[in-house]
Amino acid sequence: MPEKVRHDGWGCELSEPLRIALAGLGTVGAGVIALLDANAELIARRAGRAITVSAVSARDRHKDRGVDLSRFAWEDDTRTLAERGDVDVVVELIGGSDGPALALARGSFAAGKGLVTANKAMLAHHGLELARAAEAAGTALRFEAAVAGGVPVIKGLREGAAANRITQAYGVLNGTCNFILSRMEGEGREFADVLDEAQRLGFAEADPSFDIDGVDAGHKLAILASIAFGTEPAFDDVALEGIRHVLAADIAEAAVLGYRVRLIGMAEESGSGLFQRVHPCLVPVSHPLAHVTGATNAVVAEGDFAGRLLFQGPGAGAGPTASAVVADLIDIARGNVGPPLSMPSDLLTRAVRAAPGDRRGRAYLRFTVADRVGVLAEIAAAMRDAGVSIESLIQRGAQPDGSVLVAIVTHEGPERSVAQALERLRGSQSLVGRPMLMHILD
Ligand SMILES: NC(=O)c1ccc[n+]([C@@H]2O[C@H](COP(=O)([O-])OP(=O)(O)OC[C@H]3O[C@@H](n4cnc5c(N)ncnc54)[C@H](OP(=O)(O)O)[C@@H]3O)[C@@H](O)[C@H]2O)c1
């Protein structure tokens, strides 16, 4: 009997090395090389064959990256990596939704190569196109590192929970916001002050808006929602609200009420469609997400048979992110070339965007108001007229500027009613600055 030989998606025998090219040699790229070096033998045994680097590319050929690159061919133009005959899989670690990363991804599939990427921005915007291209080429597209860094949540949901109908997936998806909120909570400092420190310590970018305005978490949520709900990735459907307007006083009030403030990315099925939203929330201290601090990320998914699943771990950094990238490579080396998303892309549905306001829940509202008679009555009347029932109301004495802080927690009700109450108060002479609305994660 002739010995049966197994092949991967490219006709190579599974005993031959999987040959990769790396585009981008920054934090994650250098981390991938360090990991492949450190655990080469273990990886080869687990994958059934060695994973070897054929060629690399970045902007600056002469930069010291703490790893020996002299063993690999260098390409000045990242796009040529995909055209090399000694490359089976391209690893894209440049970043950015378009530009060289997208050109390389498209070029990889056109050349029949697999692609592993950590690029959430590219997948949130072009995930469907790339999944289709990978399927058409019969190659792999893997992106575990794009959501929650080292936490295997994509694999956990796509494979581990594949038999479940997921009703909710939500989590703490941005380490920078987590760092800032944790510091504000621990030290009672204001947002701008802590952001300044985070930038000096390297926890926040010089332009921090992607993180603090919820865009980064939104990219991850768009991918997560697609995997959880079998929908086409649709970043434009994600409503974004960041943490710029959270005051130290909000965090202090939340603590008094038994909550912590977290930036939560949430995708949830409702009667009218799919909610996808990133927003600061009050999380009960008894909830696991209340204990997620610093660069840790965590995702909760509710499966109809599995129940509540919690994925938690380091959401960034060279080691954790490289771990996820190399796990994808091992998967491909083993010949696991399934659909990139939760099912073949022509079976994914276009999610109907749930009507804003349809969701029910409790809310925290904070008003900074003028210290004069009748203000509380005006706020209470707006709530009553919009049909919002108040569970608790706290008024804190005069702030340094003479204003007063009013914090309200509502009973459960349609979010639409709370929005209507705020609309009634728009332009009121009693309010100093914009009110703060945070939904409560119950
Ligand atoms: N850092 C993390 O913890 C983390 C976690 C999860 C996901 N990710 C994702 O992983 C990807 C890489 O992140 P990173 O933190 O490693 O970024 P990084 O440290 O800024 O590295 C980016 C690399 O891309 C190269 N590059 C930039 N523009 C290029 C161009 N036009 N042509 C060729 N090379 C170019 C840079 O070259 P030079 O070095 O020569 O300038 C650098 O080596 C991003 O998609 C990011 O969102 C990162």
Please state the average pLDDT score. 94
Q: Note poorly predicted spans.
A: 1-5
What kind of sheet is the major sheet?
A: 11 strands, mixed
* H/E element order: EHHEEEHEHEHEHHHHEHEEEEHEHEEEHE
End-to-end span in angstroms?
62 Å
Strand coverage percent:
15-25%
Which distinct ligands sit in these coordinates?
NADP nicotinamide-adenine-dinucleotide phosphate
Query: Would you tell me the structural class of the helices and strands?
Result: alpha/beta
Number of helices: 13
The whole-angstrom Rg is: 24 Å
Portion of residues within helices:
25-40%
**Shape label:** elongated
- Write down how many β-strands occur, each being a DSSP E stretch of 2 or more residues: 17
Summarize the structure.
The chain has 442 residues and is of the alpha/beta class. It has helices at residues 27-38, 40-47, 99-110, 120-137, 153-160, 175-187, 191-201, 209-212, 215-229, 248-257, 318-333, 375-386, 415-425, and strands spanning 18-23, 51-57, 73-74, 89-92, 114-117, 141-142, 166-172, 239-240, 259-270, 273-284, 296-303, 307-314, 360-369, 390-396, 404-410, 413-414, 436-440.
List the helices and strands and how they pair.
Blueprint: E1 18-23, H1 27-38, H2 40-47, E2 51-57, E3 73-74, E4 89-92, H3 99-110, E5 114-117, H4 120-137, E6 141-142, H5 153-160, E7 166-172, H6 175-187, H7 191-201, H8 209-212, H9 215-229, E8 239-240, H10 248-257, E9 259-270, E10 273-284, E11 296-303, E12 307-314, H11 318-333, E13 360-369, H12 375-386, E14 390-396, E15 404-410, E16 413-414, H13 415-425, E17 436-440
Parallel strand pairs: 1-2, 1-4, 2-3, 4-5, 5-6, 8-10, 10-17
Antiparallel strand pairs: 7-9, 7-11, 9-10, 11-12, 13-15, 13-16, 13-17, 14-15
The structure holds NADP nicotinamide-adenine-dinucleotide phosphate.
